[in-house]
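Try this one yourself first.
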């Protein structure tokens, strides 16, 4: 996935490391989109995006309502004319070490560590598509071969 993100043009990964709020789009069980603001961290080498949230949230319910491995989601960030979207499949992770790692990554990107929360979980997105415009040229969407 690192290559796919770098193929998007100059600064694509760097854009995902800057301080920006993002949106997460999940699908409700009836197929309607649910879009909410979130903080996102991206592990380019692993091809994973992470969102920390509460296990009682609608976004978690939407991911869990899908068949395993079939919860399609997208995260997006915009800054003026620069934008980037990552698409993939999401899973909810609850293991304490996984949650702790995601919280640490969030702290690195956003400059603050959230207070401990026993209800915290991680939505982990396996990225299979990256698109956006962060440099001078407008790159096309890139698919990841399965």
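Now uncover the answer:
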């Amino acid at each position: 996935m690192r290559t796919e993100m770098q193929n998007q043009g100059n600064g694509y990964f760097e854009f995902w490391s800057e301080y920006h709020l993002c949106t997460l789009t999940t699908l409700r069980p009836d197929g309607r989109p649910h879009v909410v603001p979130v903080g996102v961290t991206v592990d380019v080498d692993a091809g994973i995006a992470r969102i920390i949230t509460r296990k009682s949230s609608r976004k978690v319910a939407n991911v869990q309502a899908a068949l395993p491995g079939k919860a399609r989601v997208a995260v997006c960030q915009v800054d003026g004319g620069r934008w980037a979207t990552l698409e993939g499949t999401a899973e909810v992770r609850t293991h304490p070490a996984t949650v702790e790692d995601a919280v640490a990554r969030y702290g690195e990107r956003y400059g603050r560590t959230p207070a401990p929360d026993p209800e915290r979980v991680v939505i982990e997105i396996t990225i299979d598509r990256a698109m956006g415009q962060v440099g001078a040229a407008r790159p096309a969407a890139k698919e990841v071969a399965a």
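Discussion: Confidence is low (pLDDT under 50) at residues 136-140. The first helix runs from residue 2 to 6.
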